[in-house]
């Protein structure tokens, strides 16, 4: 039999932009998941999980073929059968596909869904941004085209951030119009930018022809300067879009949710109409500088449901998501109290073969009684097992050796003060519970 060759050191690391979430980080993720589940239940959202892989067309057609995600960031490959597949770069298109495929419009409408999980984009890794990243979001589908649903999604995200103790959150809101009024605004935008084309970045020179609204989303400093005097879309909204925006802002004021009307806020995906929004909070960079950090976004996407064949009258949808990686970065930086309570643990120590055989049953009896037991049964040395108990921050050690197995007793040692006593096995559970209450 041939011996496998050792894997080279260059392969013993995750791919660029991917990462492992290690055990010592999980308490932050557990906190997020607990609060997500609480808020979802509180506001009557039900969970949906979609596949990580989709047909590439699901995103190419819905997000827009000239968007950065489709042009530069999607992980696309061919299966052995020749299908073009993509790792999902965002959650909404997949959920709308599932909504249409499985006839979820037959459930009670509007349907309130939530999700969380990994997404994939081939971006340049930076603070809070990875190629495998995590999103958690809320979607309301199939209801009337009513701004109250837009306000509900924003409210749920806002309340989740409150539960996570994220402070200094600012909400930016805008409308990007509809297929009736947006063409007129696009023309005004192109007329403004056309004389500036030679001064724009390479991407924006192309956007003037292919996707003018994306000009307002460019992060290039020169392009951002020109944006400050660009025409604003609220001056071009039709009466329906204008009324929708006005009602949304009235709902936000009724809820006392602070917001800023951001005339230049657009979303990088083609399926949005009317409402768009983003959540920002203050973050600190590696050099100590403070800046606004985008942690969530969303908007209305009625046309996306139409694209997937949802019939007129039911093609109404609005949603939003938080970037979980970024939220957790902020939680760590601001030292959010996770509300963790110390749970008393006992460490089971066994010495000798006879004791080891009987240990399994004893440990299960303790666990069945609700006592948290940690063990390292594979180790034979008393010292090694007690060192493991210290690493686990256990309160008590239960020491079970040959003598104790014969006498049906257990040594209970307090690891904080070293005091120990021998207890009959028949009294062990009650004795451990008594001590853990002290």
TrEMBL record:
Q: Which GO terms describe its cellular component?
A: cytoplasm
Which reaction(s) does its UniProt entry say it catalyses?
tRNA(His) + L-histidine + ATP = L-histidyl-tRNA(His) + AMP + diphosphate + H(+)
Aminoacyl-transfer RNA synthetases class-II family profile domain sequence ranges? 37-331
| Gene Ontology MF terms in the entry | ATP binding; histidine-tRNA ligase activity
**Enzyme Commission (EC) number:** 6.1.1.21
Record-level GO BP terms: histidyl-tRNA aminoacylation
InterPro entries assigned: aa-tRNA-synth_II (IPR006195), aa-tRNA-synth_II/BPL/LPL (IPR045864), Anticodon-bd (IPR004154), Anticodon-bd_dom_sf (IPR036621), His-tRNA-ligase (IPR015807), HisRS-like_core (IPR041715), HisRS/HisZ (IPR004516)
Q: Name one Pfam family in it.
A: HGTP_anticodon
Looking at the record's lineage, which domain of life comes first? Answer: Bacteria
| Subunit relationships | Homodimer.
Q: Which family does it belong to?
A: Belongs to the class-II aminoacyl-tRNA synthetase family.
- Mind telling me which HAMAP family this protein's record contains? His_tRNA_synth (MF_00127)
Q: What is this protein called?
A: Histidine--tRNA ligase
List the source organism: Candidatus Harrisonbacteria bacterium RIFCSPLOWO2_02_FULL_45_10c
């Amino acid at each position: 039999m041939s011996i496998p060759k050792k894997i080279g050191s260059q392969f013993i690391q995750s791919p660029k932009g991917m990462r492992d979430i290690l055990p010592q980080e999980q308490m932050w993720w557990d906190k997020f998941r607990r609060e997500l589940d609480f808020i979802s239940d509180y506001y009557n959202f039900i969970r949906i999980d979609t596949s990580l892989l989709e047909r590439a067309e699901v995103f190419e057609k819905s997000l827009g073929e000239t968007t950065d995600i489709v042009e530069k960031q999607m992980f696309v490959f061919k299966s052995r059968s020749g299908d073009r597949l993509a790792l999902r770069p965002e959650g909404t298109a997949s959920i709308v596909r599932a909504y249409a495929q499985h006839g979820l419009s037959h459930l009670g409408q509007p349907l309130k869904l939530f999700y969380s999980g990994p997404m994939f984009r081939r971006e340049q890794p930076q603070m809070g941004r990875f190629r495998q990243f995590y999103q958690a979001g809320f979607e309301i589908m199939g209801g009337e085209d009513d701004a109250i649903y837009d306000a509900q999604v924003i409210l749920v995200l806002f309340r989740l951030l409150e539960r996570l103790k994220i402070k200094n959150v600012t909400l930016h809101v805008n409308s990007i119009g509809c297929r009736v009024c947006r063409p007129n605004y696009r023309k005004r935008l192109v007329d403004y930018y056309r004389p500036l084309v030679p001064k724009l970045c390479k991407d924006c020179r192309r956007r003037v022809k292919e996707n003018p609204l994306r000009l307002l989303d460019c992060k290039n400093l020169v392009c951002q300067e020109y944006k400050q005097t660009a025409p604003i879309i609220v001056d071009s909204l039709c009466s329906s879009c204008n009324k929708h925006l006005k009602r949304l802002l009235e709902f936000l004021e009724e809820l006392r949710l602070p917001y800023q009307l951001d005339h230049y806020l657009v979303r990088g995906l083609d399926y949005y109409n009317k409402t768009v929004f983003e959540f920002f909070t203050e973050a600190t960079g590696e050099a100590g500088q403070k800046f606004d950090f985008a942690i969530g976004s969303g908007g209305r996407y009625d046309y996306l449901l139409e694209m997937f064949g949802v019939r007129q009258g039911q093609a109404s949808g609005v949603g939003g998501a938080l970037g979980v990686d970024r939220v957790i970065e902020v939680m760590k930086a601001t030292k959010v109290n996770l509300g963790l309570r110390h749970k008393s643990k006992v460490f089971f120590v066994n010495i000798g073969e006879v004791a080891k055989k009987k240990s399994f049953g004893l440990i299960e009896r303790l666990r069945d009684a609700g006592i948290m037991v940690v063990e390292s049964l594979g180790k034979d040395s008393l010292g090694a097992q007690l060192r493991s108990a210290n690493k686990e921050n256990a309160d008590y050690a239960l020491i079970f050796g040959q003598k104790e197995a014969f006498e049906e007793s257990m040594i209970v040692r307090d690891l904080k003060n070293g005091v120990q006593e021998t207890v009959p096995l028949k009294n062990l559970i009650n004795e451990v519970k008594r001590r853990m209450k002290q």
